[in-house]
Design goal:
The protein is an alpha+beta fold. Helices cover 28% and strands 25% of the residues. The chain has 7 helices and 12 strands. Strands 1-2-3-7-6-5-4 form a 7-stranded mixed beta sheet, with helices on both faces. Strand 1, helix 2 and strand 2 form a beta-alpha-beta unit. The longest helix has 22 residues. 43% of the residues are buried. It binds biotinyl-5-AMP. Biotinyl-5-AMP binds next to helix 2, strand 3, strand 6 and strand 7. The site of biotinyl-5-AMP has 26 residues, from helix 2, strand 3, strand 6 and strand 7.
């Protein structure tokens, strides 16, 4: 469906003309260049922007990953967007939000290009052993009536594999690199927002078992031998066994056989 040279310009009007969502993207800001769409979305949240506001940039000069890492964000080729959510649940809703976001990105990539992506817990989207998309969730005022969550998504769309910087060339990919053709970013973003809205609505107020199972079916982490980097340079190794009801990863530690519940950590696949 979206596998064509960009037939339409990537503008706010073009994106909104394709939208079929209730709230997501009804207010949409598209900038030629931003430091980080997450930063701009958090600032908009502080000045009262409504639920569902979407911030998009053609280029990011300080695109952020987790833990201070950098998200490579060159101009004109990819999607960098942040979604501001005010209809924020608590507990399991919050902890499943990043996982559901990864699932929505995976479904969008699959529908657009017929590719078979997988999820690396909690929310990285991979094609084979290469990362095609990442998610960064940030929040403000949780537990207050002004609670807001900003979900940032970086999806590599039309960037050629040779255009990645050397350190990413072997570990990153894009829709175009995998499918051999260019994609219409306006159409992709409209599809992504619809998929996200469906996922977010489905997990309110509880995360349905069917969605948890669907996530598990796509999650390449389960059953793997992994090394988990935790806070303060601590690591553990074991077998990733399950996703818990609140979205954490259960790992059976090698040697001790203890069941550990990982809520935040970096996962390395050992085999
Ligand atoms: C992530 O971090 O995967 C979250 C990335 C979120 C980016 C979006 S773009 C819109 C919004 N605004 C922002 O400022 N951020 C969000 P993490 O799991 O920490 O992965 C970062 C690592 O992925 C880096 O250290 C690189 O190894 C790799 N990486 C960086 N840029 C990449 C890219 N474009 N494609 C694939 N891998 C990349």
């Amino acid at each position: 469906m979206a596998a064509a040279a960009e037939p339409r310009p990537f503008t706010a009007d073009a994106i909104q003309g394709l939208l079929r969502t209730r709230a997501l993207g009804r207010e949409l800001h598209l900038h030629p260049r931003l430091a980080s769409t997450n930063t701009t979305a958090l600032a908009l949240a502080a000045s009262g922007a409504p639920h569902g506001t979407v911030v998009v940039a053609e280029e990011q000069t300080a695109g952020r990953g987790r833990l201070g890492r950098v998200w490579h964000s060159p101009a004109g080729e990819n999607l960098y967007c942040s979604i501001l959510l005010r209809e924020v649940g608590s507990g399991a809703w919050l902890s499943w939000l990043p996982l559901m976001t990864g699932l929505a990105v995976l479904k969008t990539v699959h529908a657009a290009a017929g590719l078979q992506p997988s999820l690396k817990w909690p929310n990285d989207v991979f094609i084979g052993s290469r990362k095609i998309a990442g998610v960064l969730g940030e929040s403000a005022g949780l537990g207050t009536p002004d609670a807001v969550v900003v979900v940032g998504i970086g999806l590599n769309v039309n960037i050629g594999r040779e255009s990645f910087p050397t350190e990413l060339r072997a570990i990153a990919t894009s829709l175009a690199a995998e499918a051999g053709c260019r994609f219409d970013r306006a159409e992709l973003l409209a599809s992504l927002l619809l998929e996200l809205e469906a996922c977010y609505t489905a997990v309110t107020p509880e995360v349905p078992a069917a969605l948890r199972e669907e996530y598990g079916a796509y999650c390449s982490t389960l059953g793997r031998q992994v090394r988990v980097s935790l806070a303060e340079d601590r690591t553990i190794e074991g077998r990733a066994e399950a996703i818990t009801e609140d979205g954490a990863l259960r790992v059976i530690e090698s040697g001790s056989g203890r069941a550990l519940t990982i809520r935040t950590g970096d996962i390395l696949y050992l085999r």
